[in-house]
Amino acid sequence: MENLNKKILLVDDDLDLLEQNKMLLESKGYKVVTASNMKDAMDTFKKEKPDACVLDLIMEEHDAGFVLSHKIKRDEYGKTIPVFLLTSATYVTGMKFGASTSEEQEWIHADGWFDKPINIEQLTTKLEESFEEYKKK
Amino acid sequence: MEEIKQEEIKQEEIKPKVLIVDDERGLRIGTKRILQSEGYIVDVAENGTEGIELGTKNDYDLAIIDLKMPDVDGIEVLKTIKKSRPNTICYIATAFASFDTAIEATKLGAQSYIPKPFTTEELLKHLETGFEKRLLILESERLRKEREERLLEIAYEKSRLNTIVNSIADGVIVVNKTGELVLFNPASLKFFELNEIIIGEKILGILPGEISDLIKKILETEKYENKSYSSQVELKPNRELFVDVTCSPVPHPDGSLAGVVIVINNITELKKLEHVKSQFVSMVAHELKAPMAAVMGFMNLILDDSMGIKPEQQKDYISRSTKRLQGLIEMVNDLLDISRMEIKKKEREIKELNIAEILKSNVDFLELELKKKGVTVTSNFEADLPPVKADNNEINRLYTNILSNALKYNKDNGTIDISVYKSGSFVVSKISDTGIGMKPAEKEKLFQEFFRVKNDQTRNIPGTGLGLAIVKRIVESYSGKIEVESEFGKGTTFIIKFPFKH
Q1: Which one, out of A10, B236, B332, B479, has a CA that is 20 to 30 A from the CA of B496?
Q2: Does B459 have pLDDT greater than 70?
Q3: What domains does chain A contain, in order, with CATH numbers?
Q4: Which domains does chain B possess?
């Protein structure tokens, strides 16, 4: 399988969800490194150089996922990998849980969004598609 | 007064009032008799002085004044009466008529000149004509007055309406059928940040497009239809200025369309509140969904045979799910408390409460858990504390939240110091712990709904993030104050002040 040695950085401040998603991704053959706050996430990203990132949206700060995505996508290495955001509130209810303008979208620069709880089949399909796309770039 | 007089005149239409001024007794009495028999009401004056007195005091319809009298001559009498009673029809009667006196008399306002001696017919003919003239004068006078009054009334009504329209805080604009400005008030200028608009100007192009569109909807129908259109328009972005605009057709008396009245109501505050509320709903949705997602994730892992979860691991997942569900229940309870507080403020049972007693009973309630963590409580209650008027359940809830935080975030074998004392017109309670403390940025957000300090130390401490939000709501609803002092790593002190009545 293509993904056998692919490494995913998974970030979530909900330790239960972090553990579950780690197990799910591992069951699909990925290597998973985790972090549960912004600082650890950045450190792990730099150290591990993952092949993709899956970031929870709301951590200590409500826009932590946005900021993290922004930072990774501006990194020389980060530019070359797909970044996905996880959220438990995808519908727009007046609160900024999503990018509402194209400017914001550009600033965040994520490759996709996933609703919680994760549907692992959807996530792996999307990951594989992205790997293919990034390989072409 | 004026009206009553006019009434009198009307009623006496058949009986004209006549004043006869003559120094010749026989003529006075003779004329009086003739006129009375003809239905006149007659007063007589036997000299000029008396004539002036009566003629100025009463508003006679007619007066017959003798020209030559020993005291004051007729011309003088005529002049004086005419001056104060311009509508009395006066006749000068004399045997010594000259052309000059006749002219002078007419110039001074005499109706005409009756040469003496006169026949009954001659006199009556004169008086009848005179009386007709008198009635016409009075009628035209009445009409003139009426018109003047009405004009005044209209002017007053108009200026009053203007003042009212100008005083309305809502913007009011009226346009005619062709979209030209008919009326506006200062508030409407403020909304659109215009310095002035000119009556008669075509204003559809000046107004924001959304508002012009509403107006056009009415104007384009051409026929008058009693149907209003409203819309909420954001005049300045980011909810800085939000208005509700209602356009209603104005009918002509014949039922056709005359124009449109536009009322602009500032709803910025309402919109801000709505935003806060929807933000709160979003937060609630998120906070509820996170634990549900976790529980669902565990269940899916257990159910998925391919994952090969071992029985002891399954048990761990189930117990962790239970914990998340427990948290969920607590959060729902807190949310219910918040909404109950908002809805049922009036159903409170206000009693005189002793804050020290409430704190004591709360500490007793926590005894077991305090022992478990080895936390000791020291308390210092001032004697003779004045009672605070409040609802017992709410105040208990408040101190339960504060004390359970002091315990939850304390270190093992730490202490909680409680003191209650009087300061000014407040009963102050101070609860200090020796716990993990907070950074200044965290302290700022402490009372926000769903805010929780998140770090490695707090990770395993359960909480809904609503406890202190509830505390703050309770304190403020009794006009109290809450302050926090905290040092990261050392501990936190909550100072709660409730006002009491002296």
Answers
A1: B332
A2: no
A3: 2-136 (3.40.50.2300)
A4: 2-144 (3.40.50.2300), 168-266 (3.30.450.20), 271-343 (1.10.287.130), 348-499 (3.30.565.10)
